Amino acid sequence: MRYFAQLAYNGTAYAGWQAQPHAPSVQQTLETAFSTISGTAIEFVGCGRTDAGVHASQYFAHFDFDGTFPNGFLQRVNKLLPDEVVIYNIFEVAPDAHARFDAFSRSYEYHLTFIKNPFQIQTAYFYPFTNKPDFNKMQAAAHLLLHYNEFQPFCKSNHDAKTLQCDLTKSEWMQTDENKLVFHITANRFLRGMVRLIVGMCLNVGLEKVRLADVKTALDNQTLLKKSWSVPPQGLFLTEVKYPFLET
Question: Among residues 51, 66, 83, 214, which one is catalytic?
Answer without folding.
Answer: 51
